[in-house]
């Protein structure tokens, strides 16, 4: 697992559209907005765009953000976003390795918890996160702008 580079963007975008939900909202062409977003992530010490690599190929990706907060006695939390594993590598341990790595990073940063959201329609993802110890403790809401 390593930080993503500009060269990884085509493979990351391919992972993001490699499911029913992502295919409706993302595209595979690298646009200037993608480069700007990656550079903003790279410039922020509390954000990381990561890729899992096997034999030189990107087989997974996720974003890891560290968020300060006043709740929980001013503790930090880690937020995991946009987790994807290549279809040919699903159920092979890549996703679990990425999550264990992210949780380890959260511990190193002194975070009090790790949080993520997962679309209600992603039932396989729910089971995956539950196997890793995540609990569906909150109801998430989004407002598209």
The percent of residues in helical segments reads 25-40%
Whole-angstrom Rg: 15 Å
Structural class: alpha+beta
Q: Mean pLDDT score, rounded?
A: 92
DSSP summary, beta strand count = 5
* Backbone shape: globular
Tally of alpha and pi helices: 6
The major pleated sheet works out as:
5 strands, mixed
Strand content: 15-25%
Helices and strands, in N-to-C order? EHHHEEHEHEH
Widest beta sheet: strand line-up? 1-2-3-4-5
Low-confidence stretches: none
Instruction: Give the termini separation.
Output: 32 Å
Descriptive labels:
single chain, 5-stranded mixed β-sheet, alpha+beta, 145 residues
Please describe what this structure looks like.
The protein has a five-stranded mixed beta sheet with strand order 1-2-3-4-5, with helices on both faces. The protein is an alpha+beta fold and 145 residues long. Strand 2 (47-54) and strand 3 (57-67) form a beta hairpin. It is globular. It has six helices and five strands. The model has no long low-confidence stretch (mean pLDDT 92).
Write the layout of secondary structure elements.
Blueprint: E1 2-3, H1 9-16, H2 20-25, H3 32-43, E2 47-54, E3 57-67, H4 71-74, E4 77-85, H5 94-108, E5 113-116, H6 123-131
Parallel strand pairs: 4-5
Antiparallel strand pairs: 1-2, 2-3, 3-4
